[in-house]
Amino acid sequence: MSNHKAPTSKDSSWQMNLPQFDVTPKHSAYDVVIIGGATMGACSAWFLASNPDFKGRVLIVEPDPTFAKAQTGASNNCMRQQFANPINVRIGQFAAEFAKAFRENLGGDAAIPELPIRNFGYLYLSDNSSLTSLLERDQQVQAENGAGTRMVGRQEIAAQYPFFRLDDIEAGSLNTQDEGYYNAPLMIEWLIKKSIERGVEYVRNKVVSIGRANDKVTSVTLESGEVIEAGHIVNAAGTRAGEIAAMAGLKLDIQPKRRYTFIFRAKQPLDRDLPLTIDPTGVHFRQFGDDYLVGCPPMGEDETVACDDFTAEEGIWEKKVHPILSKRIPQFSDVEIIDFWMGHYDFNTFDYNVVIGPHDVVSNFHFTNGSSGHGSQQGPAVGRGIAEQIIYGEFRSLDLSPFLYSRFAKGERVIERAVI
After folding, report:
1. Domain residues of the chain, as ranges?
2. Dist. CA 296–CA 298, nearest whole Å
3. What pTM value is reported for the model?
4. Following DSSP, what letter does each residue of 210-230 receive, concatenated?
5. Interatomic CA distance for residues 364 and 100, integer angstroms
6. What is residue 241's three-state secondary structure?
7. Is the Cα dihedral 129, 133, 138, 140 positive or negative?
8. Which residues is 207 bridged to in the sheet?
9. pLDDT tens-digit profile of 142-183?
10. For the domain with range 119-180+255-348, which CATH number is right: 1.20.1540.10, 2.40.340.10, 3.30.9.10, 1.10.10.10?
11. E strand spans, 227-380
12. What is the pLDDT of residues 368-377, one digit of tens each?
């Protein structure tokens, strides 16, 4: 069950319609070389190319332009502001703003699709007072930063969503404002197309080594043999980010973690949209077009796996997912699985937050790594931040400095508890 089949539901179209990428770069030197062309790489390239203050040449090196095994391809395409950290709330809000004005943000061409958010919302369920207290604390942070989250009791949950079994639930945290689903891969497809129109060059190739002279990176060597001079290098390599950092003699502990996704059809569909519901067990489920999606971490220890390990645990559906799902929503006792995939989170185990911006010593090597499952919605803010660092040497739109690489040496964790 490790293969991702072509989905059929109206909310599930993640295949991208992209031009063919050449293997060989057109030039021998670029102002910026981005390693990885999916969410983080595409967002970084767009915000560079669309900034009138940037006049440089950008190359993106991507080994698999189908993104079949990238996190972008396995994305569940979620949008939320329900985080414990104020910066992540604001990052989520920018993603929502960017998506809602997507066509305008990309220049207004009528061919550019709209990118609406399907606001069925997020609902965190709590079955104990400690978790409820955490949700209440987080809700206050979110409200202070303009998010529409509110605490709801069991009776209110039952009235709004009568299909839930709630005998063990005491409260929940709910937001239906700019929270739910959006088509993140479609966003990436058009960022790539419009970046190419503005001169960004994509090649289907692989970086095998990085040149460095003292406190600067100087070049990348491609699998096809070319040595390309680079003014800046952006690490947008997803779960392979640690390998790329090591090529520059730098340390970055990003670990791939398994995350499962099932798409299923209910014999008795619900009479209203199912919010993305986070069960206290960690299993989460939501509306998926006219069908439903359920995702979860592994059955046992959340172990680190190899970047190319897409095997699934035997019995994950029968032993873990379906018992929890059918207990919480009895109507889901009788369902048919219509799709399944296993993807990876790029976990930053230091504090579960993205690493962004320049290295504290090698200042022209930039990170966009370790979003720990939040990359689809964090990409726009991260890409904008990377562009600002490269162009201006500082964050100008949103201060992301707590997520700089320098926090590792200082031991300054910016913990994000709200990781699903």
Report:
1. 119-180+255-348
2. 7
3. 0.93
4. EEEETTEEEEEEETTS-EEEE
5. 33
6. helix
7. positive
8. 222
9. 999 999 999 999 999 999 999 999 999 999 999 999 999 999
10. 3.30.9.10
11. 227-235, 254-266, 276-278, 284-288, 291-296, 335-348, 355-358, 365-369
12. 999 877 788 9
